[in-house]
Specification:
Number of helices: 13
Shape: elongated
Strand order of the largest sheet: 1-4-13-6-7-8-9
Helix content: 40-55%
Strand content: 15-25%
Number of strands: 14
Structural class: alpha+beta
Distance between the termini: 30 Å
Largest sheet: 7 strands, antiparallel
Length: about 425
């Protein structure tokens, strides 16, 4: 695993070496994961890059390389490079390249002279490289053990790369198709927690009225009557400010329950009592209810009675718009079958068809009473998700890769 699933869907990740982006001194074999040095002398350095770059939008990226054979001298370099690196040189020798070298354990970054970093590595060792765009750092591992920060100045787009330099050198990369020696999943969890903790540490006023309003509107929208009462009590919201909302919840719940149980006549009657002007102004909702009544009658009423109802109450909608006409054709098709419950249109008779009607009805009633069809809190969450996606797509704000909004909400709840 190299990063969150959300980011992985949007940006292709390195998964093998690029046969078209390597030095002529290398062979790529084994599903594009194994490099074999075929140069003639140690002056012929040869590097291969991965097939895809690491965008900063991934947050953190990790890969490992196993030394199959250190060859004659083990002049192997593992790291990352820019798109323009000269592949006839080793990682770390050129600007915007970083390389951990096996022969002496030195770290090179943009220079042929390096500095001591970690131990040398040889045959059967596994070397890992982690690029963290959140902290702009790189660190390497040897046999699953982190070796400490190698640099803290990375910017831009990098490719995983490996360079070889002497005869007999063979390495094999793992870009996440197999388990890593280093516990990268745990590392990702820790980095994610740091981001969450930093956001959670942002202070806001206790009893913030704007926050309370967002939460209250959400609870009212979804009809959580007891929760509204408890929240209002705990938040110090005056009872007279919620009494009307609680009454509205009771009314909406009673009506939607009638629809949910197939009692359409009672639902319409209750609507006319509780919200006298509603069905006159919302012909679309009235049509949905009447069409559902027709379906309920198909299940139990005599066909003659059902046809009379359709003629009297439904046919007039045919002239009111193409959508009504299309929906009428669908529900009226039930009449064509002797056993509609065994027909291709039997899905119309399923109880689950009532649920979208209750949802539309609930939203329409909220709008009718001066409330939004979608709770502001839900809009805020959706907008935040869109912003995070846009940030990731444009490679801005690497920490955004961890900002899965539902995950953050769960994390916040678990901290309470």
């Amino acid at each position: 695993m190299k990063r969150s699933e959300e980011a992985e869907r949007k940006v292709p990740l390195p998964s093998c070496f690029n046969i078209k982006d390597k030095s002529h001194g290398l062979d790529i074999i084994g599903n594009g994961l194994r490099l074999v040095y075929k140069g003639k002398s140690d002056i012929d350095a040869a590097t291969a890059k991965a097939n895809n770059p690491i965008s900063s939008s991934v947050g953190c990226f990790y890969f490992e390389v196993k030394i199959i054979n250190k060859g004659r001298d083990g002049y192997i370099a593992i790291g990352v490079c820019s798109a323009t690196m000269n592949l006839g040189k080793l990682p770390g020798w050129e600007k915007n390249t970083y390389g951990y070298h096996g022969g002496d354990g030195n770290l090179l970054k943009g220079s042929v002279t390096g500095h001591a970093y970690g131990p040398a590595y040889t045959t059967n060792d596994v070397v890992g490289c982690c690029v963290n765009f959140i902290t702009n750092t790189i660190f390497f591992t040897k046999n699953g053990i982190p070796l400490g920060e190698a640099t803290n100045d990375i910017k831009g787009v990098y490719y995983p790369c490996v360079g070889l330099r002497t005869l007999g050198e063979v390495v094999e990369a793992n870009f996440g198709a197999k388990p890593f020696m280093f516990d990268f999943n745990q590392y990702l969890s820790e980095e994610k927690k740091k981001v969450f903790d930093k956001i959670s540490a942002i202070s806001y006023p206790e009893g913030d009225s704007a926050s309370n309003s967002l939460i209250l509107s959400f609870l009212v929208h979804h009809g959580y009557k007891q929760t509204v009462e408890a929240f209002a009590r705990e938040s110090g919201i005056e009872t007279n400010k919620t009494s009307e909302q609680l009454t509205d919840i009771e009314n909406r719940q009673s009506i939607t329950e009638l629809v949910r149980s197939g009692q359409i006549d009672k639902a319409i009657s209750t609507l006319n009592i509780k919200y006298p002007d509603f069905l006159q102004s919302r012909r679309d909702i009235l049509f949905q209810l009447l069409a559902q009544k027709f379906i309920e009658m198909i299940k139990s009423a005599p066909i003659e009675q059902t046809m009379v109802f359709a003629q009297k109450e439904l046919y007039k909608f045919e002239k009111e718009g193409p959508q009504f006409k299309k929906d009428l054709e669908e529900v009226f098709s039930l009449i064509s079958y002797v056993e509609p419950q065994n027909s291709p249109m039997s899905y119309l008779l399923d109880h689950s068809r009532r649920e979208p009607i209750t949802t539309s009805l609930n939203c329409a009633l909220l709008v009718h009473t001066g409330r939004p069809a979608v709770p502001p809190l839900e809009k805020l969450v959706r907008q935040t998700s869109v912003v995070v996606d846009e940030v990731l797509q444009h490679g801005l704000g690497a920490a955004a890769v961890f900002m899965n909004v539902p995950d953050f909400i769960k994390q916040e709840a678990s901290n309470k």
